[in-house]
Design goal:
The protein is of the alpha/beta class and 107 residues long. The chain contains two helices and seven strands; from the N terminus they run βββββαβαβ.
Length: 107
Amino acid sequence: MDPDGYRRWIVSGYYFDLFSSWDGIRTIPDLHCMRAGADLMTAFGTEVMGSFLVKGHLTAHVYITDGPYRRWITSEETRKKYQFNAPIQVWDQNVLMHGYLPGPDWT
């Protein structure tokens, strides 16, 4: 579930770009009752890829790519809460800041 209360599909093959194990998977009996949000993915032109944990090479802020947006993961506690424990990719600062629109913080 994301911070806005939606369940989000992680594009096939990209699970380990956000998580390092299956330990965070939980069975939720009433999953069908939860609101469905957009797939958690990143689009590069016409190519659709999963979301990534990224940071610019000039900043300590960690973001999750979410469609055309970069969403700041506001704290280490937030990373632990959502179990975002995959390695963080380091991208060129200009690509991260100008290639993605600022989205709502991931809290």
